[in-house]
Write a structure and sequence with these properties.
The chain is α/β, with parallel strands linked by helices. It contains ten helices and six strands, in the order E-H-E-H-E-H-E-H-E-H-E-H-H-H-H-H.
Length: 216
Amino acid sequence: MPRLRIMLADDHTIVRQGIRKILEDHPDWEVVAEAGDGREAVRQAIELKPDIALVDIGMPMLNGIEVTAQITRRAPSVKVVILSMHPNEAYISRAVQAGARGYLLKDSADADLTRALAVVSQGKSFFSPTVAKVMLDDHVRLLAARGIVDRYDSLSEREREIFQLIAEGRSNKEIAEILFVSPNTIETHRAHIMEKLDVHSAVELVLYAVRKGLIS
């Protein structure tokens, strides 16, 4: 089994040391780079192409959201996981829109870190439970304020199945292989799902899934 190559980006040396210690307990995981500012994080991600970049949201020179956007654009094979002190929907939404595959809170990093990296390494998404709950609460309040009924119940059983696979970051081709149908069939289902849920992009679909607690 190939080793999981990880880059750490945080401007606090002691934080990087603590995270490195947790990761080094996994024999198949390797920290291949560390960065203390955003520009260095982007440079190393492009040069070394680690499997996962664990990026602090508040860094000098270039903030974590912009780091995520640049890595996603310039080194798309690198999966970015955000590490943050901010459990609010504005930050999580910006992170996902920038291309982040995970969002961890620093106060729960010890409990969530290894699970998050394992899940993201499999091509899925991971959000700290507190983050998911905040997003769900905000979503419920927004729906109530607008007098809108949650449309999730309008999805068929097959649409819910496909919805979760899409939210996990799987391509139409991958989903088609899992369900033994054609990619065109999946694309048709995707269009129906987005129409029923009134979402207009893959990012909005992932955020919806997080709010519903369908992906961790």
